[in-house]
UniProtKB/TrEMBL annotation:
It comes from Chelatococcus sambhunathii. This is Mannitol repressor. Transmembrane segments: none annotated. The lineage of its organism: Bacteria, Pseudomonadati, Pseudomonadota, Alphaproteobacteria, Hyphomicrobiales.
Length: 210
């Protein structure tokens, strides 16, 4: 998955590296093999980056400074709210992404070695709206059957996880894999994955029109 050119990147380049959609799918599927804390923090970072890409693709004048350090859109919270104001995400997506932000904060800053069995964590995960592709398909217009998203190859099969591809929900060719278990970790993972994929599709659509 990782090549020599990526390994040679500077620390700043590694931090700001923007994977393409195929790389992102592979990265998301890798997360289920990580400890719970790492899974939440990294998935939330991917979602933060996907939000930034979708917002930036909508700008007439591109500027990375607005996302850097103390820029107006430097925080995950500010990106969620501007994306909602711009109409890039639905009400359900906004609520879910904000829940993922709160989970990220708890796992990143809390002193306890938390996992998805903690009552408060489990309750938040079970409050998520878009934890399956069928609901996502009915609630959003992000899926375009004519978009180049359909060029993505079949997803990598996960070992030791019972998965269901989005093809099973009628989204042929999307090429992402969702965890089939109806537990807290699966709901978190699927919701993050669906939102990231939705944002990527919107980003590609806007870049294609620019």
């Amino acid at each position: 998955m990782y090549n020599d050119s990526q390994r040679a990147l500077s620390l700043r380049e590694l931090t700001s590296y923007k994977p393409d959609i195929i790389e992102m799918c592979a990265m998301m599927e890798d997360l289920v093999n990580l400890p719970h804390r790492s899974h939440v923090i990294v998935a939330a970072t991917f979602l933060d980056n996907a939000l930034q890409a979708a917002i930036s693709a909508s700008f007439t004048n591109k500027s990375d400074a607005i996302f850097d350090n103390r820029g107006n859109l430097s925080s995950f919270f500010s990106k969620i709210n501007i994306a909602w104001a711009m109409g890039l995400i639905s009400k359900d997506e906004k609520e879910d992404i904000d829940t993922i932000r709160l989970l990220r904060n708890a796992f990143a800053h809390g002193p306890l070695n938390m996992d998805f069995d903690y009552v408060a964590i489990k309750e938040r995960c079970f409050s998520l709206n878009l934890h399956n592709a069928e609901k996502w398909k009915s609630d959003t217009e992000a899926f375009d059957p004519n978009s180049n998203i359909r060029e993505i190859p079949d997803s990598i099969k996960l070992i030791d996880f019972d998965i269901v591809t989005v093809d099973d929900y009628g989204l042929t060719g999307m090429g992402i894999s969702l965890l089939k278990e109806d537990d807290a970790r699966a709901r978190f993972h699927n919701t993050a994955y669906i939102n990231i994929f939705s944002l990527f599709s919107k980003t590609i659509g806007r870049e294609g029109r620019s």
